[in-house]
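ok, trying the design again with the full structure, not the truncated one.
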């Protein structure tokens, strides 16, 4: 696990000082080592967190004749098999690293090499013979990669994190208003745009080639939804167990200590169960909780799992004081506002992990791949009702108390507001976002429709409504969760691995028919039933929690003054991003208990802090 950066300049010039400054900005990603490659028109930088082949894994790494050089961030879980084939093809290795396997695979197969890799990665190869820079990212976007392309200059800068560009003298941080608009509507960014004007994300499953001052991007992987019907339902359960066990075994490879997150949910518990077994009965687990009552505390279920698998359990209470003291650092490390407040507790549990191990396994991906959200169940019923209206009675009989809202949002509201049926839950402000903006920004965005990003994604989606929902989650929400996981982990110099997002597991999950994923109208049925004999009964008798954060209560009580001090400060009010009257109204409504405005206040707070750090330049305190 590392950080990478670099600059390609067709017009030449001394770019190495900029790359060294960029690399310094992401030193938290690799405190163990750094390295550079410099040649006319290209400079590459690398920060290393040593996980595999600790003594010989220094980067950049070169091929036999020095004509190809690589900087790389990630883990390749099938590198040993690929290495054996490359040796048979005549390649000579000097290390035991997966980095060198990627480099020789590029030599052997060219751009097609990326289709062979099972893992999480972002890498850049400078091919001196072809005078080409080749950059690639893993299939589902577990490892981030950003770039700035100046076509007029034929100049490309790239990095693992956006903040690296602050070291480039040609970069000045300014707001991308389209990204802000998308964030206000979706509480997320849906395509390759970022909050920074001129900065793009290389999308998951894509590679980029730069040669002779020209840049091209190619998609090499897209999810396939071809269903595979097995003779018996139990065959899906057996396949899940077999694939998850194999995936966890692959991802346990490490030359440093490792552990696992344990939330008390099915996904993290399933991963931890196999990890403890395959790690010789030894495993450290990590759980965060809030002291705000049972609704915000999953320790009971997590501790039951830890006892069941014989793990050493570590816990961390997270409170209001932690929010006020770290929210600026969290926004800094995330680079830009994305998704909801889950990044806050994740940051603190990652810090707990860093005090014990260097690598941690997570349960990310289970909800998206195996229908863990009520959204899936509602769209499944909508499909059934479209085929036979009498299934409406089946829906009513099988709705749980907490699922009625999801039924209204995903089945009834689309009849009135078609955009609500596009497959993602929109922010409550989907019809009011322009009114939140300052007058100048409101005029500038008058012709912009954030739903256009969603419609553009849907143009490539399957026809089946459930496949479309899963497609959108794989393209939007899940990659954003990966970004948060990567950056809060790297803030503490730890590596997070995701066994449920292994290539084999993703392919399997997308092939399972929805009537089997939702058998008995039960969310995450495959995971629950496959793991029933390995997990405590308590997990099957408790509601899904998903690490809820008590910011509703905090913003009304102990943190109300902190939030107000930022949003009502002259800097924020005069910035022109949000309408001052709207800010005052939302604060008053929330603190008085008149309306719950926690989500929009969270958005406003993050946007203001982002401006202070990256636009105003108030970042000295977060760099220390």
């Amino acid at each position: 696990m590392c950080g990478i950066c670099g600059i390609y300049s067709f017009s030449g010039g001394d770019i190495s000082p900029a790359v060294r400054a960029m690399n310094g900005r992401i030193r938290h990603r690799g405190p163990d080592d750094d390295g550079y490659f410099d040649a006319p028109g290209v400079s590459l930088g690398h920060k290393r967190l040593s996980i595999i082949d600790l003594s010989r894994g220094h980067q950049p790494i070169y091929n036999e004749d020095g004509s190809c050089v690589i900087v790389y961030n990630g883990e390749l879980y099938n590198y040993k098999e690929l290495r054996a084939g490359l040796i048979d093809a005549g390649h000579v290795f000097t290390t035991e690293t997966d980095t060198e396997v990627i480099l020789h695979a590029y030599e052997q197969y060219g751009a097609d090499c990326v289709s062979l890799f099972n893992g999480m990665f972002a890498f850049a190869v400078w091919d001196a013979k072809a005078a080409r820079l080749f950059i690639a990212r893993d299939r589902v976007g577990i490892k981030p990669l950003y770039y700035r392309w100046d076509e007029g200059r034929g100049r490309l800068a790239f990095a693992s994190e956006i903040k690296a560009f602050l070291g480039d003298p040609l970069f000045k941080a300014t707001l991308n208003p389209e990204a802000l608009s998308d964030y206000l509507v979706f509480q997320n960014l849906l395509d390759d745009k970022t909050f920074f004007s001129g900065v793009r994300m290389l999308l998951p499953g894509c590679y980029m080639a730069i040669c002779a001052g020209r840049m091209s991007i190619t998609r090499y992987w897209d999810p396939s939804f071809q269903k595979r019907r097995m003779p018996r339902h139990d065959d899906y359960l057996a396949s899940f167990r077999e694939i998850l066990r194999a995936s966890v075994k692959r991802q346990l490879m490490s030359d440093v200590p490792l552990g696992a997150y344990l939330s008390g949910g099915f996904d993290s518990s399933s991963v931890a169960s196999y990890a403890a077994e395959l790690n010789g009965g030894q495993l450290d687990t990590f759980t965060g909780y809030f002291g705000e009552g049972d609704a915000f505390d999953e320790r009971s279920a997590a501790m039951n799992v830890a006892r069941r698998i014989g793990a050493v359990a570590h816990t961390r209470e997270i409170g209001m004081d932690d929010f006020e003291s770290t929210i600026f650092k969290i926004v800094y490390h995330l680079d830009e506002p994305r998704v909801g407040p889950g990044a806050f507790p994740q940051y603190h549990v990652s810090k707990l992990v860093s005090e014990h191990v260097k690598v941690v396994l997570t349960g990310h991906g289970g909800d998206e791949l195996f229908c863990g959200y009520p959204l899936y169940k509602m769209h499944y019923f909508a499909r059934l009702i479209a085929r036979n209206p009498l299934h409406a009675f089946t829906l009513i009989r099988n709705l749980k108390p907490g699922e009625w809202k999801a039924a209204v949002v995903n089945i009834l509201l689309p009849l009135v507001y078609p955009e609500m049926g596009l497959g993602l839950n929109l922010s409550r402000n989907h019809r009011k976002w322009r009114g939140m903006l300052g007058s100048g920004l409101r005029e500038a965005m008058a012709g912009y429709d954030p739903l256009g990003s969603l419609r553009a994604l849907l143009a490539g989606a399957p026809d089946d409504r459930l496949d479309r929902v899963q497609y959108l989650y794989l393209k939007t929400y899940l990659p954003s969760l990966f970004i948060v996981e990567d950056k809060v982990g790297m803030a503490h110099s730890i590596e997070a691995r995701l066994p449920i997002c292994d290539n084999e597991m993703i392919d399997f999950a997308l092939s399972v028919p929805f009537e089997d994923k939702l058998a008995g109208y039960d969310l995450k049925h495959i995971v629950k039933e496959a793991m029933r004999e390995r997990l405590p009964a308590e997990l099957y008798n408790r509601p899904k929690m998903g690490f809820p954060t008590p910011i509703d209560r905090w913003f009304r009580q102990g943190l109300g003054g902190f939030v107000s001090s930022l949003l009502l400060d002259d800097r924020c009010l005069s910035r022109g991003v949000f309408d001052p009257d709207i800010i005052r109204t939302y604060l008053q409504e929330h603190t008085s208990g008149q309306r719950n405005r926690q989500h929009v206040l969270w958005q406003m707070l993050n946007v203001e802090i982002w401006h202070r750090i990256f636009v105003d330049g108030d970042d000295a305190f977060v760099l220390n």
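Keeping the full-length input from now on. Residues 277 and 309 are 8 Å apart (CA to CA).
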